[in-house]
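Appendix B. One record, verbatim.
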Amino acid sequence: MARTSIYLNFPGNTEDAFLFYRSVFGGEFGNDGIARFGDMPAMDDAPPMSDAIKAMILHVELTITGGVILMGTDAPQEMGFSVIQGNNVNINLEPDTKEEADRLFHALAEGGIILQPLQEMFWGAYYGQVQDRFGIHWMVNCAF
């Protein structure tokens, strides 16, 4: 089923933030709990990760008021990320089909910037990122 969520990037304190959000909103972390960078399959062209990076949060999600899904990740500088105001919040769209994912992605990209082209990812989704012409960051994530 299609859904929309809010995706937050943190400079290394995602776990603290989401433990706080869980204390405020209640509930449990979805999708098998907290996934860490160390859980990610090794990539052939990537250097080995430090233990500190492996312990960081790759993905966490929590349902909050009104059924809104709040998601988050750490964005380590060692992996080329730089968390600044503007890229620390993304609107995550999860359409039902690849066709709808393509339509939404390319419509949002018109006059904007494609940050990561749509492609099949290791977590089983067709995924891409775009910054629209108003500076808003969008993620399109279609499970297959």
